[in-house]
Specification:
- It is built from eight helices and seven strands, in the order βαβαβαβαβαβαααβ.
- The protein is of the alpha/beta class.
- The chain has a single domain, classed as NAD(P)-binding Rossmann-like Domain (Rossmann fold, 3-Layer(aba) Sandwich).
- Helix 1 links the parallel strand 1 and strand 2.
- The N and C termini lie far apart (about 40 Å).
- The model has no long low-confidence stretch (mean pLDDT about 95).
Length: about 260
């Protein structure tokens, strides 16, 4: 196989959550450019339909499904809609996540905990489970979970988010170990600081935060979403055929300190 073919996603069916903007949108367009048909999900259908139209301009098919991943019935409905249209799911990217508010560990309320865990962890786990059952029947697949460097080094006032992302790293290991016999590879990426709606909101909460971040980032800048998706293509493709249970850190060098 030629080296460029090892990174191809031709004839693959991908499902990407949180795909209406940011890293999810960038991943959807990159996967389509690599040859995949791409189903996309998030809570805002209008934004999803815009991304679906962009995918179709790249010559690939797409399906936009409005979904709240904190609700079990909507997870089941999402998987059914995608498999009804495409017949299977070869690649799942669990990108949906975030935190609706900032709060220190001393101030965080149960409501914030539940909202963060419902999407960042519960939704990720049960969507992976539902998709993996189909992958088992079709001969295997690849699951990519989106964690964060906050799983290893939490920033101030996002403790609940950091805890959820640390759990994603362990969920990745558990799923990789248990599902390897079914030819399902499960890996994660841990982005550093990326210009997304969540992160830019965090930056705006304190004028000094960006300066602090840049000081501890060796490359001295914040990433754009498109700079994260190369790692996803690697993990989704045959180029990573012997990789499972790993978390790929993409952080501009912050974790080297």
């Amino acid at each position: 196989m030629k080296s460029e073919q090892r990174f191809s996603l031709a004839n693959k069916i991908a499902l990407i959550t949180g795909a209406s903007r940011g890293i999810g949108r960038a991943a959807a367009l990159a996967f389509a450019s690599a040859g995949a048909d791409v189903a996309i999900a998030s809570r805002k259908i209008a934004d999803l339909e815009t991304v679906a139209a962009e995918i179709k301009k790249l010559g690939r098919d797409s399906l936009a499904v409005q979904t709240h991943l904190g609700r079990m019935d909507e997870i089941s409905r999402l998987v059914k809609k995608v498999t009804d249209k495409f017949g299977r799911i070869d690649i799942l990217v669990n990108n949906a996540g975030g935190s609706p508010a900032l709060a220190s560990a001393m101030e965080a309320e149960e409501r914030l905990w539940d909202k963060v865990m419902d999407v960042n962890l519960k939704g990720l786990f049960f969507l992976s489970q539902a998709v993996a059952r189909g992958m088992k029947d079709t001969g295997g697949g690849r699951i990519i979970n989106v964690s964060s460097i906050d799983a290893f080094r939490p920033d101030h006032k996002i403790g609940v988010y950091a805890i959820s992302k640390a759990a994603v790293v362990m969920a990745t290991k558990v799923m990789a170990k248990e599902w390897a016999p079914y030819h399902i590879r499960v890996n994660a990426i841990a982005p550093g600081h990326v210009h997304t709606a969540l992160f830019d909101s965090y930056l705006s909460s304190d004028v000094g935060i960006q300066e602090q971040i840049l000081k501890r980032t060796p490359v001295k800048r914040i990433a754009e979403p498109e700079e994260i998706v190369g790692g996803m293509i690697f993990l989704a493709s045959d180029a990573s055929s012997f990789v499972t249970g790993e978390t790929l850190v993409i952080d501009g060098g912050i974790m080297t300190d």
